[in-house]
Amino acid sequence: MRFPTFRTITLTAAATLVAGAALASGAERSRGETAGQARSGYTEQMRHENTERVRTRLKADGYELRRLEQEDGRFEAHALKNGKRFELYLDKGLNILRSKADD
């Protein structure tokens, strides 16, 4: 009968620790957040609040928000106005930086 070597035991223990850490970080993201969002403290609640802020801002200008993406504090909104589709880019202060009508 052959006994496991010290190297085998060490590698098995290391693999178990890595797997445990991966499971633990997955549990922290179980609310549908990405790893970056979990680390930065960005939550689904914050995403919802930002969406509502952008929706309210665009509605005041006559747009109907269809889709919203956020990256690095800026927003890319797809919206309708007077039957036309628009792609809008907004900064953190919800100022429209650029507006592009889709043909």
TrEMBL record:
Residues 9-92 form the PepSY domain. Residues 25-53 are annotated as: Disordered. InterPro entries: PepSY. Keywords: Signal. Residues 1-24 form the signal peptide. This is PepSY domain-containing protein.
